[in-house]
Design the sequence.
């Protein structure tokens, strides 16, 4: 479903444009502190999955998702004007859990190194 050299190029362009829009034109306070991490395009370029991260509480992540949903139409219109694609892709924003997962793994490794990790199933 997700692949192709052209889809990577278009995804990179979309990532740059949305980042620019968030910095300069989108004024929604719910999107402060959000970092775009990746854009993955379907092969047919009709759908873009935009991944973002945000360090904060779950409520802040939900607010950011609502902010993206609110700005989606504006962002899509701007992408269409700036990139001159045959089809402006449907944009779906998704929270990127990979950074949180990486931090969790780092904490586990630190505990292993210091000997503070307790094995859950009774084997220590």
Sequence:
């Amino acid at each position: 479903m997700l692949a192709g050299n052209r889809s990577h190029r278009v995804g990179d362009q979309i990532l740059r444009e949305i980042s620019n829009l968030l910095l300069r034109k989108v004024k929604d306070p719910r999107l402060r502190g959000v970092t775009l991490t990746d854009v993955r395009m379907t092969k047919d370029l009709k759908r873009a999955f935009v991944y973002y991260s945000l360090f904060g509480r779950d409520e802040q992540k939900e607010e950011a998702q609502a902010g993206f949903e609110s700005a989606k139409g504006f962002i899509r219109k701007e992408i269409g004007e700036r990139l001159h694609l045959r089809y402006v892709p449907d944009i779906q924003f998704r929270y990127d859990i990979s950074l949180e997962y990486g931090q969790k793994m780092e904490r586990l490794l630190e505990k292993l190194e210091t000997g503070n990790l307790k094995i859950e199933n009774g084997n220590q």
Q: What stands out?
A: The domain at 5-114 is CATH 3.30.300.20 (GMP Synthetase; Chain A, domain 3). The helical segments are 5-24, 58-83, 98-114. The two ends are 43 Å apart (CA to CA).
